[in-house]
Design brief:
five-stranded mixed sheet; 22% strand; Beta-Lactamase; Heat Shock Protein 90; alpha+beta; 353 residues; 13 strands; Helix Hairpins
């Protein structure tokens, strides 16, 4: 990076920034042009520093009009302090994302610096692709249960007297199960929104994590799984744990379902003290997870080859654990099979939300 006379403080870490940074002084002379800006624009930093901003960045709107004469940072309205991110064009057509901020010493005073941020459009393209994939996945997952609900309810309304009580009950049970499936999907979407926006609220209370593990195993057994398939071990010495009971239920339920549906053999749950908190380990005896895939397990839309669903469950699990100040890891058990282990701090009532 090159700094001109208008920049103070000597060499800094501007080149460490992932986005392009261009700064012009009060007379529109470029004084900072970092390496990311050089990469995005194709303009050499040594050439840029000392030149006029509009000559170094001759930006155009998508309509082809020159951008700087339109926004007039130095002699335009003094109530304007910058512009939000927008798509603009460089000479020759490359599209980039540009933000601008006008720095004034006092409100409505003259502009002392123009700070311009530059980003490659590939960043936004990745975000848009992720959103499109989420919409596509959700639409696909919603279509099946909603089609079932619509079909059975329409049939019952039109031909109620033609069915026996047993047939009616079977169809209503199917409708109820599909409605639960839709509810779970909507809950997943809300969780993702809160996790991504940092608005996830943790409501702490004292929870017996060992009892939670036993309760979820009992629920799996009541759902038709063999009791002999599960082993629960609770080690003494676990401190009083202040956690969000509902979110802990989500984490444990998801990991157990993952072990049952993806793995084989015995599913083991170990709850034990870990430092000033507690750890829960869930293992199965299936094929395990290949080493090169383990870094992707907690990303959105990750699915094993044998399992359907949205691929959002483990992404949410990690978000819920980290929201507690905990951590989660994945590996393979010594005897084969997948091994998930998460650790939560004990916390205190003082940290309760």
């Amino acid at each position: 990076m090159v700094l001109g006379a208008g920049a103070s403080g000597g060499l800094s870490s501007y080149d460490d920034l992932p986005d392009g940074l261009v700064v012009a002084d009060e007379v529109c002379t470029v004084v900072v042009f970092n390496s990311a800006a050089a990469r995005i624009t194709g303009v050499d930093a040594d050439f840029a520093v000392g030149k006029r901003l509009e000559d170094v960045l001759p930006l155009e709107g998508l309509d082809g009009r020159a951008w700087w004469p339109c926004v007039r940072p130095y002699d335009g309205l003094r109530t304007v302090n910058g512009h939000p991110e927008r798509n603009l064009l460089l000479p020759g057509g490359p599209e980039i994302l540009v933000t601008a901020r006008y720095v004034r010493d006092e409100p409505r005073g003259p502009v002392r610096r123009v700070v311009v941020g530059l980003r490659d459009t590939r960043h936004r393209a990745r975000e848009e692709l992720s959103r499109a994939e989420l919409v596509s996945t959700v639409a696909h997952e919603l279509r099946s249960p909603l089609t079932s609900v619509k079909g059975f309810t329409a049939t019952l309304l039109a031909k109620w007297d033609r069915f026996t009580d047993e047939q009616k009950r079977l169809m209503l049970e199917t409708v109820n199960a599909d409605a639960d499936r839709v509810t779970r999907l909507i809950t997943e979407l809300l969780d993702i929104s809160r996790i991504d926006s940092g608005r996830l609220t943790i409501r702490r209370q004292v929870v017996d994590i060992g009892r939670v593990a036993h309760r979820h195993v009992a629920g799996m057994v009541a759902g038709g799984h063999a009791e002999a398939r599960f082993e629960v071990s609770v080690v003494e010495g676990i401190p009083e744990m202040w956690v969000d009971a509902d979110k802990l239920d989500q984490v444990v339920a998801n990991l157990l379902e993952n072990a049952v549906h993806h793995g084989d053999g015995t599913v083991r749950i170990v709850v034990e003290p870990d430092g000033d908190g507690a750890a829960v380990t869930v293992t199965d005896e299936g094929e395990g997870i290949a080493q090169h895939l383990q870094d992707r397990v907690f990303t959105r839309f990750w699915r094993s080859g044998r399992r359907g669903g949205t691929g959002l469950g483990l992404y949410i699990v990690r978000g819920l654990v980290e929201a507690h100040g905990g951590r989660i890891e994945v590996g393979n058990a010594p005897g084969g099979g997948a091994r998930f282990r998460f650790v939560l701090p004990a916390a205190t009532p003082d940290f309760a939300d």
